[in-house]
Each structure stands twice: as C-alpha cells, then as structure tokens.
Amino acid sequence: MKKFYCLLFLFLLPVFWYAQEKPNVIYIYADDIGYGDVSSYGATKIKTPNIDALAKQGIRFTNGHSTSATCTPSRYALMTGRYPWRQKGTSILAGDAALIIPVDKITLPKVFKQAGYSTGIVGKWHLGLGNTVEKNWNSPIKPGPNETGFDYSFIFPATADRVPTIFMENQLVVGLDDIDPIAVDYLKKIGNEPTGKEHPELLKMKSTPNHGHDQTIVNGIGRIGYMTGGKKARWVDEEISFTFLEKAKRFIEDHKKEPFFLYFGATEPHVPRMPATQFKGKSGLGYRGDAILQLDWLVGEIMQKVKVSGIENNTIIIFTSDNGPVLDDGYEDGAVTELNGHTPSGNLRGGKYSTLEAGTRVPFIISWKGKTSPRISGALVSQMDLLASFASMFHIAIPPNEAIDSENHLNTLLGKTDKGRDSYVEQGSTLAIVLGDWKMIPPNKGPANTGSSLTNIETGNLLQPQLFYLKDDISENNNLAEKYPEKVKQMEVLLNTIKEK
Ligand code: NG6
Ligand code: CA
C-alpha cells in the first residue's frame, strides 16, 4: 500500500509542478499619466471607465511609485530591479542612444523566461539600442529588447517626439527601403528636409517657444533630432496606438495557450499629443485629455481581448505610469489653455521632473480577475519590486548582486496584505527618501520651479531640508524639518546608506 502511494505521488509530481501558478501578465505602462488623471484616482473632469473597471476588479494602490520622475530611469529600474541613479547615463535618452540595460544580468522579462513564459514587448522602449550611438538604422540593430529578455519586440526606439519616428520589429526597422535609407543625427542637421525652426508654417501643431521640438518635421510635427530617409517607414502619429494595439492583440492571440508576459508601452499622454480622429475634441480638455481617453480605450481593448481569449481568470493586468504629469511639454496642444480645472496631479504637489510626490506617485493598479479581491491598498510599493516579486512567485533565485533594490512584495501586490516597503528613494531633480510615513528631501540648489515659460512644475528644490509627514500631509505643504531635526538626520543617514549599498 505504501508503495502504491509512493508511486502515485511520483506519478502526480509533474501535475503538481504544472499546477504551480503561472498566470499571464500584461504590464501596461502609460507615459506621463498623473496621479489625478484617471477617474478612479479622483479625476472629475475626465472619465476613464476602462481603467476604473480594472481598478474595481483589482487592487488600487494609492502609494504606488515609479522610481523616477522621468521615463528612461523609471524603465531602467523596472527592467533591472536597480535604482537608476546607481548607473551613469540613465537619464532621458536621445533617440539614437546605445542600450543601457546590461545584457548579462537578470531583468524582469528574463524572470518570466526562466519560468517558461513567452515574453513580448509592444510599444515605447526608450532604453537605447545597439552598442554605440552611431548605428546603421537600415540593418539589424542589437543589443536591444530581444537581448534583454524579450522573445518578441515591436517598439519605437525612444519617445514620440524624438526621431527616428519609426517602428522596429525584432531588431529591424519596419518598412525599410533600399533606395531611401534612414539616417539619424542629434548633433547636426542631415539631409534637406525642413525643420520646425526654419519652416514653422509647415507645422500642424506648433512647438512652444524655448522647448526645442523644432528639428526635423515628420507628419507636420517638429521633433527632437534630425532624420532623413525612411519615408515609407515613418509613423503617422494618429495611428501609432492602433498599430501597437494590433501587435499586442496578435501576441495575446498567439500565446493564449501558454503562459506569457506582455509589456505594453503606451505613448499616451506624452507629447506630441496627436490622438486619432475619433478622440480629438472628445474630452473638452484639449489633446492631452483626448490622449487620456485614447489610453483608456486601449486599456479596454486589451481587457476585452483577454476576455474573448478565455484567459481572463488566468491573467494579471497591471496598469501604471512611468512618471508624473506635465501640461506644456513642448507643443501648443491646448493642455494648458483647455485645462478647464482638471488637476493631473490630484492633491499631490509637483509633477513630471519633480522630487515632490507627483513626480513618482502614480496610478498603480493590479488586477487578477477571480483571484484578487477588489480593494484599495495604501502600501508603499514600487514598479521596481515586480522583478523580485515575480521571481518569488516562480521560486527563481536572483543572482547575487543583481536586482539589489527590488524587494519581494508579492503578497502585497496581490492584495493579501497591506505591508509594503519600509523605505524608498524617489528620484526627481534630486533624491528624496521616504521612511514609513515620513519623507525628506535633502537641500538642493536649483530653481524651485522649472519656469513658467517651460513646463511650469514645482521641482521640490530648496536650500534647506524638507521633511513632510505624508500620512497627514500628502500635499507636502508643511515642512517639519526645523521641528524634527533628528528625524531629518536619521533619514539623511538612511539615504546615504542606501546610496552606498
Ligand atoms: C524632454 C523634452 C520633453 C520630453 C522629455 C522626455 C525638451 C525641452 N523636453 O527633454 O518634451 O520629451 O524629454 O519625456 O526637449 S519622458 O517621459 O520620456 O521622460
Ligand atoms: Ca514618461
């Protein structure tokens, strides 16, 4: 009899192994959406029903963070599980930058690969390509997403406002043409195409003074950087998200029978905001608001695709943003003039580029239909923690000295507990430290505001230390540094310890 049970156990072993939970994971990374930009986070001037539906069936984090108040560093941290400021060259990258993610270290997609998943990225990349700035855009470029953990990639290289304005599928620009080769330069003008600076009359959307965005014109929009050739490969801004959505749906369709990880990097509501005709004018808040509606629609389309694929109860959908919001980020798109009382940062201070809360505290929703009990969680969590958390889900060991800043908070991310991180470093114009309910911004030179003729955002810079008790003062209005100097000291020491780790 004993023998029988033994044999039965051995026979069932593979069944147990397969029964280990391997939900599909779709990570939707919005670009520049703010804490107050979606209705489930309190927006009243704009409605985001699909994102709200996701929040309603999942966990809505009220203290969820990117690491940084701009894109590249936040994405670097998500991928590597390391604070970006540990590595030089992780600030906003040019469109021709070299890859900054190490190819020989663990990454978030590699965690999934090790667990037997198919991995794909569709959308914005902005982490560099190839080994050097100089590259031939007309032949395969590597290393890139495929060398850092993605089996499949369909991306645009940097941002929607940076050249080259093209898509790439697995190392190769889509739509290459031998007789019209692509060249890109960020230092000098190349080719003879008009620039926004020389020919503003050709623009369908003007760039705002002092903001650049006046180099090569593509699709009637002045860009950062110079580009020539590749006329057939260039995107039409109004169609970018349809293209990404189609590729994402295809990826889901092709992999619905196996576990998959899909990183979906939406471009909304980053500049240039040039939504599709069906969304133009729909929000009443200018193109920025329309772009948010478009983003919400995208989220709904992805949710629907998951549903009709019959994998709803086996799919985790995460929605979050790479940094806080900005209104005027370089184009006359009505974001400021048609704001109509909308508050993109909600009740937080600051925004994109800022060390204040709105720089990194962003909408953060995790839904696993049928598994997560819907709730609101105030736990302090970071996108950077997904790496260690999923590694723990799959019992994967992280190699020593890799992903050193990623913490395992799987139970928190799945809503089983509200215990999050004890401490966290937020990167804006300087590094701030959060410890429990306290936040300290060390003294920092530099203007208190990015400037009313520029993005007009409070930076958080002050020559004195700033100490806030976030629990009672989420809007960082009450500087307690003078009252609690020992707390300031303690947090300064902690920040230095983390920096030296
Ligand atoms: C800035 C751009 C801004 C935006 C940002 C990157 C200027 C003056 N401003 O340099 O428009 O592109 O870079 O945004 O050029 S991010 O979300 O990718 O970090
Ligand atoms: Ca961004």
Explain what the structure shows.
Residues 1-19 form the signal peptide. Residues 23-395 form the Sulfatase N-terminal domain. Keywords: Hydrolase, Signal. 22% of the residues lie in helices and 16% in strands. It has a 10-stranded mixed sheet, with helices on both faces. Strands 17-18-19-20 form a 4-stranded antiparallel sheet, with helices on one face. By secondary structure, the protein is of the alpha/beta class. The chain has 2 domains: 24-414, Alkaline Phosphatase, subunit A, CATH 3.40.720; 423-500, Arylsulfatase, C-terminal domain. The protein has helices at 2-19, 49-57, 71-80, 108-114, 240-255, 286-308, 386-393, 410-413, 485-500, and strands spanning 24-30, 59-61, 64-65, 118-124, 152-156, 168-169, 172-173, 183-185, 217-218, 221-222, 226-228, 260-265, 315-321, 364-368, 375-377, 381-382, 423-427, 431-435, 438-441, 466-469. Mean pLDDT is 96; it is low at 15-19. It binds 2-acetamido-2-deoxy-6-O-sulfo-beta-D-galactopyranose and calcium ion. The site of calcium ion has 6 residues, from loops.
The shape, in one word, is: globular
Fraction in helix: 10-25%
User: Which CATH C-level class of the largest domain is it?
Assistant: Alpha Beta
**According to CATH, what is the topology of the largest domain?**
Alkaline Phosphatase, subunit A
Given the structure, what is the number of helices?
Answer: 9
Q: Strand sequence of the main sheet, in spatial order?
A: 7-6-5-4-12-1-13-14-2-15
What's the β-strand tally? Answer: 20
As a percent range, the share of strand residues is: 15-25%
String of helices and strands: HEHEEHHEEEEEEEEHEHEEEEHHEEEEH
Total domains = 2
Mean pLDDT equals: 96
Pfam families: Sulfatase (PF00884)
Domain Sulfatase N-terminal: 23-395
Keywords: Hydrolase, Signal
Family: Belongs to the sulfatase family.
